[in-house]
Amino acid sequence: MASKKKQSDYEVTFFSRGGQGGVTSCQLLAQMAFVEGFKDVMSIPQIGAERRGAAIRAFLIIANHEIRRVSAVTDPDVVLVFDESLLNLPPILDAIPKKDCKVIVNAENLSKETRLSRDIELYSFPGTSIAIALDLMLEGSPLVNVPILGAFSQVTGLVSMDSLKSVLKEKWGSRADRNIESIEQSYKKTVRVY
């Protein structure tokens, strides 16, 4: 992780569309951080237009100490982008740091010619195709909210695959198998773009 502040805490921003499970993903990652041994987490959804397809933000602070503030993340260490098309929205582009940040995008073939700064670490993973192949669908739309957590684990090392699997098994029991397969695949298929 980049060290722009004392690294006893990590800030994560989630950018998704309504119906993609961004808020659920944020909450799952908070649970996974506890299982991993972090002392405190703060999960904060920011929902504007409550409709399927609208841009949604969620924020997560993971800390090795008690968190004493409740606020949106403004300088994230990690940004998770659930849909490559979100990178075309100026408010989202403006919210992604220009340096000292890891950005993970759900994209099959993310071009190096993005409008994102070259002073960040940019990663991609094929979350949509993984979700479709494993039939992780909701009302005909692929859910990348769990696969993106495998990519997060690969890129940051903050939560292990064991912690991810433990929380998924606790949450869904025997129905967690396809989700566990999705995190394993996204972990393996995450690549650095630049």
Briefly summarize what is shown.
The protein has 194 residues and is α/β, with parallel strands linked by helices.
Q: Poorly predicted ranges (pLDDT <50, ≥5 residues)? A: 1-6
As a percent range, the share of strand residues is: 25-35%
Shape annotation: globular
The termini sit apart by 15 Å
Measured as a percent range, the helix fraction is 25-40%
CATH classification, class level: Alpha Beta
Number of domains: 1
Give a quick account of the main beta sheet: strands, pairing sense, barrel closure.
Answer: 7 strands, mixed
- Put simply, the count of helices is 6
Structural class: alpha/beta
Spatial extent as radius of gyration: 15 Å
Question: How would you describe this protein?
Answer:
The chain has a single domain (9-192), classed as Pyruvate-ferredoxin oxidoreductase, PFOR, domain III (Pyruvate-ferredoxin Oxidoreductase, domain 3). It is 32% helix and 26% strand. The chain has a seven-stranded mixed beta sheet with strand order 2-3-1-4-5-6-9, with helices on one face. It has 194 residues and is an alpha/beta fold. Helix 1 packs across helix 5 (161-172), helix 4 packs across helix 6 (177-189) and helix 5 runs antiparallel to helix 6 (177-189). Residues 1-6 have low confidence and may be disordered. It is globular, with a radius of gyration of 15 Å.
Feature tags:
194 residues; alpha/beta; Pyruvate-ferredoxin Oxidoreductase, domain 3; 7-stranded mixed sheet; two-stranded antiparallel sheet; 26% strand; disordered N terminus
List the helices and strands and how they pair.
Elements: E1 9-17, H1 22-36, E2 40-47, E3 55-63, E4 78-81, H2 90-95, E5 99-106, E6 119-125, H3 127-133, E7 137-138, E8 141-142, H4 147-156, H5 161-172, H6 177-189, E9 191-192
Parallel strand pairs: 1-4, 4-5, 5-6
Antiparallel strand pairs: 1-3, 2-3, 6-9, 7-8
